[in-house]
Design goal:
Largest sheet: 4 strands, mixed
CATH architecture of the largest domain: Orthogonal Bundle
Strand order of the largest sheet: 3-2-1-4
Helix content: 25-40%
Distance between the termini: 39 Å
Number of helices: 6
Strand content: 15-25%
Number of strands: 6
Radius of gyration: 16 Å
Structural class: alpha/beta
CATH topology of the largest domain: Arc Repressor Mutant, subunit A
Number of domains: 2
CATH class of the largest domain: Mainly Alpha
Shape: globular
């Protein structure tokens, strides 16, 4: 199998430094926080095959990094049409497509998401597909919460999920005592 070369950018955000991985067609392939860089590389290896990925520093700002900057600057709807290219199963793509239909500021439960894709009993499978999402924020897996309104797992951590939902003005109410700030060293 031929090696694929992807470009990597480092983007400082209010939630910490993000790694943005794009291809030569400027499509987003993967995204994760720098403190999870090893996980990002392992994900790419699983998706595209061991020893088939070559990462290089980006020579220019990608559409993805520009859109993410706009998102963190307050344009929470700007990611909806950003091109992504991810490997995954047909079911995972069905879930990821449904995630992109959840508008900023709204949340859904795993059960509601399963119902939206016509698989109302597939809540666990939806949760697994949600967790396998390689481009969080852009495919907004953070907008999925528990049926009781509780925050549930998020690869970037619950603090980041809470921040993203608050940033988007989600109807999910963040208790005042749960509000958080990230260390000033991780801010832009």
């Amino acid at each position: 199998m031929l090696a694929q070369a992807f470009s990597v950018e480092h983007l400082d955000t209010p939630t910490g430094r993000i790694l943005v991985v794009t291809d030569d067609d400027d499509r987003l392939r993967a995204l994760d926080w720098a403190d999870h860089g090893r996980r990002l590389y392992q994900l790419l290896q699983r998706q595209y095959g061991a020893n088939t990925i070559r990462l290089r520093a980006a020579s220019r700002a990608s559409a993805a990094s520009r859109a993410l900057r706009a998102y963190f600057d307050g344009d929470t709807g700007c990611l909806a049409s950003l091109p992504v290219a991810t490997n995954g199963t047909g079911f995972q793509h069905m879930v990821w497509d449904a995630l992109r239909q959840i508008p900023p500021g709204q949340t859904v439960s795993y059960g509601a998401l399963a119902a939206r894709i016509g698989r109302p009993t597939a809540m666990r499978a939806v949760g697994l597909a949600n967790g396998a999402n390689p481009v969080s924020i852009v495919v907004p897996c953070h907008r999925v919460i528990g049926a009781d309104g509780a925050l549930t797992g998020f690869g970037g951590g619950l603090e980041r999920k809470r921040w993203l939902l608050a940033h988007e003005g989600a109807a999910w109410a963040m208790p005042a005592q749960a509000a958080m700030e990230f260390p000033s060293s991780s801010k832009r």
